[in-house]
Design brief:
The chain is of the alpha/beta class and 723 residues long. It has 21 helices and 14 strands.
Length: 723
């Protein structure tokens, strides 16, 4: 984690202060009361204090002379693993607000913001920050001439508190020795002693339970750290697999899209080839409109020729015969004769009718009537024959006229026939066909040919409607190559490439489970660390309770019990320290060697760290291990700083929080200060370093120097007025 910008508003003497530290070593220089320590407190507020915090400590941070509405505001911009982040905390007590953005995620929940910040830095509380990543000058002063102080400081860094185990152990040892040499005392009245004894027994029992909880909580904290590391590794692995699955899904979609483009461009290329071939192989060399006009003309000419030939053939096949007129006059004469004869017969026999009636015969006159009737019918037939004669005369007249007309029009029809045949032959020669059916077939073939071309062009326009590219063959080849590349990439991804959708679902489910497990591990680690930090049991108080208890009981029994309790407390402290320090000592021994080699220019390369944090380095001059207490004070200080840096990596699980140094080299001479700054420069590859100082001697080594102005007379007058 590297801070890119820190902005303070209404924080002690900083009205509106912006600091933009370098990624490496930044020296923040200023005289006393310039606000350097306030910057250190601002970082602690931003990273580890909840925005809803209240009380005297927050009130003391308010800007001097500010109104009631002015409250401290800390804004911080940072980078972490390629992600940009921004934090804004407004400390207004219960109305305090926070906004934390990391990459694409944002939260305004104070509890969640604290969890995210603990994950970023790997340091859960301000106590851990002060005892690991924040080094103050008074800590180094205590190391002078006392290796026990070195172990105490490192033990405090590991546990995240300022308990001073060595001091407690010395006090317990002194108390135990005092118990063994102390004389008898009179506790007072028996009843008073019994009541006091009962009270002290309860107090002692609670203290022992608190010590037991402290030991158990430290063990739980170590287990939580291991669980957190495993969960982080699992989440990172699942995220990478999920990223691969998402990449496979994208590649699958891109391959499908490339295959679709390949199919489109391939079809377009084939259509262009077919269209070119059809354009080259027209059945007719004459344009279709001209050919259609000529074939239509041929149809008309062929119809005229057929009509002319039919007219000529009709004249030859149907002869015009002269019809004889029917004879009707003799038939008239015969009819008149029969009518007269019949009347005569009827008249001649009429006289005989009466006599025959008398005798019963009346049939003879009927014969005369029949003859007369026949005569009438013959006359009617003759009349009809007369009418037929008129018709025959009219037909003969028409025949004569027709013969005259035929003789006059046949030559004209023959001439028109010749002209039509000549035009037809000329048109057939122009289209290079033998007859009209062949011309009709040529026209149909040309129309079908152009219809195919039109269909192909329409399909091509449909395919390439929204695509302005004209080089479809190149586009086809590019699409095929792209599809092959995507397919090869998917094949190289194994099972994920074969079924990316199912793989993504599987990895998403696994990531959700592992994220929940990690969150649970973070909460468990934070809770365990909080329990360790909140356990305020004091071994001296427990020992005092035991001592008071022994005073109200029989002197010897009380002294013995007190001795046993204090020995038990000391053993508990040793056990708790051993459990906590065991892992730290192994870690320091493995990691400090490279730092010591760099600090000492290769003089010391190997280091041993005992369980009680006693350090020894291998001396090439002596050919043996040398205790750290026998080294120079400068080397001892540098060992302490190297141990603190490695402890940061232990506590933060190899996270990289910024390191803050409040002028720990203020009493160093120039040479030792130069070596110390060289040590800090060597750490900038892993950590961003902020060095607060009043001196200018570190400016040359700094990547950036930020100078804070000194308090002005106006500031002093305001402070005096406020006081």
């Amino acid at each position: 984690m590297r801070i890119t910008r820190l902005h303070l508003r209404d924080l002690k003497r900083h009205v509106d202060q912006t600091i933009e530290p370098a990624p490496g070593l930044t020296v923040i220089r200023g005289p006393n009361e310039a606000g350097k320590t306030t910057i250190q407190r601002a970082l602690e507020l931003a990273l580890y204090r909840r925005c809803t915090a209240a009380g005297a400590e927050i009130e003391e941070l308010r800007r001097w002379g500010a109104g009631d509405d002015a409250r401290p505001v800390v804004e911080m911009e940072f980078e972490d693993d390629g992600r940009n982040g921004r934090l804004v905390k407004n400390f207004r007590g219960a109305k305090g607000t926070v906004s934390l953005t990391i990459g694409e995620e944002t939260t305004t929940d104070p509890a969640q913001a604290d969890t995210w910040l603990a994950e970023l830095t790997g340091i859960p509380t301000v106590e851990f920050f002060r005892s690991t990543a924040s080094v103050r000058h008074h800590e180094v002063f205590r190391l002078v001439g006392d290796e026990g102080n070195l172990r105490d400081r490192l033990q405090a860094s590991i546990s995240g508190a300022e308990r001073g185990v060595s001091v407690a152990r010395k006090r317990l040892d002194g108390a135990i020795r005092g118990l063994k040499t102390a004389g008898p005392k009179n506790p007072g009245p028996i009843k008073q002693a019994e009541d006091e004894k009962a009270r002290l027994e309860v107090e002692l029992r609670r203290g022992e339970e608190a010590l037991g909880r402290l030991e158990r909580d430290r063990e739980i904290h170590v287990s939580a750290l291991v669980r957190h590391q495993a969960a982080d590794a699992a989440v990172a692995g699942s995220k990478e697999q999920l990223r691969q699955a998402e990449l496979a899904i994208r590649l699958t979609a891109e391959r499908a899209e490339a295959e679709a483009r390949y199919a489109k461009y391939r079809e377009a290329s084939e259509i262009r080839a077919q269209t070119s071939e059809l354009e080259r192989t027209h059945p007719s060399k004459i344009a279709l409109p001209v050919l259609r006009t000529q074939v239509g003309r041929l149809r008309s000419l062929e119809l005229e020729i057929t009509e002319y030939r039919a007219d000529l053939a009709a004249d030859e096949e149907i002869p015009l015969l002269e019809l004889p007129e029917p004879r009707w006059k003799p038939i008239v004469y015969a009819g008149v004769l029969l009518f007269v004869i019949g009347l005569a017969v009827y008249g001649a026999l009429a006289f005989q009718l009466i006599g025959r009636v008398i005798v019963g015969v009346a049939l003879e006159p009927l014969a005369g009537l029949v003859v007369s009737l026949v005569g009438i019918l013959v006359l009617l037939y003759a009349w009809r024959r007369r009418d037929w004669g008129k018709d025959v005369r009219r037909l003969n007249q028409m025949r004569e006229k027709q013969i005259e007309r035929r003789l006059r029009g046949r030559s004209e029809v023959e001439q028109k026939l010749k002209d039509a045949e000549r035009v037809r032959d000329r048109l057939l020669a122009e289209i290079v066909q033998s007859d009209v059916p062949a011309a009709e077939a040529l026209l149909a073939a040309e129309e079908e040919h152009l219809h195919k071309i039109a269909l192909l062009r329409a399909r091509y326009e449909q395919l390439m409607r929204d695509d302005p590219r004209t080089d479809v063959e190149r586009a086809r080849d590019e699409a095929a190559a792209e599809a092959e590349r995507k397919a090869a990439a998917l094949a190289g991804m194994g099972e994920i490439g074969r079924e990316p959708g199912r793989a993504k679902e599987r990895f998403e489910g696994r990531l959700r489970t592992e994220t929940d497990e990690r969150d649970s591990a973070v909460r468990g680690e934070a809770a365990a660390a909080a329990r360790v930090g909140q356990n305020d049991v004091d071994a001296l108080v427990v020992a005092a309770a035991s001592e008071a208890l022994t005073e109200v009981t029989e002197r010897l029994a009380a002294l013995q019990r007190r001795l046993r309790v204090q020995e038990t407390v000391l053993a508990a402290l040793d056990a708790a320290e051993t459990a906590t320090m065991k892992k730290a000592t192994r870690f320091l021994e493995q990691r400090m060697g490279r730092d010591i080699e760099r600090i000492t220019g290769g003089r010391y390369r190997r280091i041993q760290v005992e369980d009680d944090l006693e350090m020894r380095v291998w001396s090439p001059e002596r050919g043996d291990w040398v205790p750290a207490a026998q080294l120079s004070q400068g080397t001892l200080d540098q060992l302490y700083l190297a141990a603190r840096v490695e402890l940061v990596r232990l506590v933060t699980n190899d996270r990289r929080p910024p390191l803050l140094f409040d002028d720990p080299f203020v009493t160093y001479d120039d040479a030792r200060a130069a070596h110390a700054v060289e040590l800090l420069k060597g750490l900038t590859g892993d950590h961003q370093i902020l060095y607060l100082t009043t001196s200018e001697r570190y400016d040359a080594a700094a990547d950036r120097v930020i100078v804070l102005p000194a308090p002005t007379a106006v500031d002093t007058e305001k402070a005096a007025a406020a006081g």
